[in-house]
C-alpha cells in the first residue's frame, strides 16, 4: 500500500476497508471521519449524477478533482458503512468515540450502520452552516450532522460540557476539497479525545482532520482513495509542518 509519513501521522493512499483490515487493533483514541454520503437526490438516478453537481452551490465555478465512492444505493451504503465502521471499532481503544459526518438524508442509514458495527450510539451533533444555499419556498438545509458513537463506556478527558451545535461557515478560500469541512469545526470536535491522541480518518479527502490534529498536538492515521486528493492533502500537511517549524 502507498504510504506517506509526516511529523504527526501517516497517510495511506488506497481503499479504506482494505487498508483498515491491515492495521493492528486497539491503537486509536478517536475515529473522526466524513465518508462519501452517496446522497443528494430523491431517487437513485438523481444520486448518481456527478458529485460536483450534487454538492456545489449553483454558479460556483471552481473545479475540484472528482470525489470517488459516492454512487452507492441505500442498501449497499448501509452494508458498506457497517463494514468500515466495524474495522474502525476494532482499531479503537475501549472508551474511544467515533464521530461520523452525515447529511439529513443519510442520517437514519448511518445511525443504523454505526450500531450494527458495534458502537453504542451516544447522540447527534449539529453543524450549522450559515452560508448554505437557499431552498426557495421550503426550509433551508443549513445543517449537517455528526453521529457520535462510543466503544464500551465513554472515556471523558475534561469536565467541560461541549456544545451540541457548532456554527461555522465554510470559507471557500480554504477549500481544497469539493465537500471540505472547516478546520475550526474539526478542531472543536477533537475535544473528546485526549491531548496527544491518535485520530483515525479513513476518508481524509483534502486533509482537514490531519490539519486539525497538527494544530492541536494530536497524531492522525488517514486514508484516501483518490490519488489526486491524497496528493493535495499531503502537500497541505507538508506546508503546515514547514510553517510550524519557521
Ligand atoms: C466527503 S470527502 C472527505 C472530505 C474531507 N472531510 C475534507 O475536509 O477534505 C470523502 C473522501 O473519501 C474518499 N473516498 C471515497 N471512497 C473511498 C474509499 N473506499 N476509501 C478511501 N477513501 C475513499 C473520496 O475520494 C473523498 O475524498
From TrEMBL:
The keyword Metal-binding does not apply. GO terms for biological process: methylation. Keywords: Methyltransferase, Transferase. It comes from the Bacteria. Pfam families: N6_N4_Mtase (PF01555). GO terms for molecular function: DNA binding; N-methyltransferase activity. InterPro entries: DNA_methylase_N4/N6, DNA_methylase_N6_adenine_CS, RM_Methyltransferase, SAM-dependent_MTases_sf. Its EC number is 2.1.1.-. Residues 28-155, 174-233 form the DNA methylase N-4/N-6 domain. Belongs to the N(4)/N(6)-methyltransferase family. This is Methyltransferase. The lineage of its organism: Bacteria, Pseudomonadati, Thermodesulfobacteriota, Desulfovibrionia, Desulfovibrionales.
Amino acid at each position: 500500500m502507498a504510504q506517506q509519513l509526516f511529523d504527526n501521522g501517516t497517510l495511506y493512499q488506497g481503499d479504506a476497508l482494505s487498508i483498515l483490515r491491515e492495521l493492528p487493533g486497539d491503537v486509536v483514541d478517536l475515529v473522526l471521519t466524513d465518508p462519501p454520503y452517496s446522497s443528494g437526490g430523491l431517487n437513485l438516478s438523481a444520486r448518481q449524477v456527478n458529485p460536483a453537481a450534487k454538492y456545489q452551490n449553483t454558479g460556483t465555478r471552481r473545479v475540484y478533482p472528482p470525489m470517488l465512492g459516492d454512487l452507492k444505493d441505500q442498501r449497499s451504503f448501509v452494508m458498506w458503512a457497517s463494514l468500515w465502521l466495524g474495522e474502525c471499532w476494532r482499531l479503537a481503544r475501549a472508551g474511544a468515540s467515533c464521530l461520523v459526518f452525515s447529511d439529513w438524508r443519510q442520517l437514519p442509514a448511518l445511525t443504523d450502520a454505526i450500531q450494527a458495527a458495534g458502537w453504542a450510539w451516544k447522540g447527534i451533533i449539529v453543524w450549522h452552516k450559515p452560508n448554505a444555499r437557499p431552498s426557495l419556498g421550503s426550509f433551508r438545509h443549513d445543517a449537517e450532522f455528526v453521529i457520535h458513537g462510543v466503544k464500551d463506556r465513554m472515556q471523558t478527558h475534561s469536565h467541560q460540557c461541549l456544545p451540541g451545535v457548532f456554527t461555522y461557515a465554510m470559507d471557500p478560500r480554504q477549500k481544497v476539497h469539493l465537500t471540505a469541512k472547516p478546520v475550526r469545526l474539526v478542531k472543536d470536535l477533537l475535544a473528546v479525545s485526549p491531548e496527544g491522541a491518535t485520530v483515525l480518518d479513513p476518508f481524509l479527502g483534502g486533509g482537514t482532520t490531519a490539519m486539525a490534529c497538527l494544530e492541536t498536538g494530536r497524531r492522525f492515521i488517514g486514508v484516501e482513495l483518490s490519488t489526486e486528493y491524497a496528493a493535495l492533502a499531503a502537500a497541505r500537511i507538508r506546508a503546515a509542518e514547514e510553517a510550524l517549524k519557521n
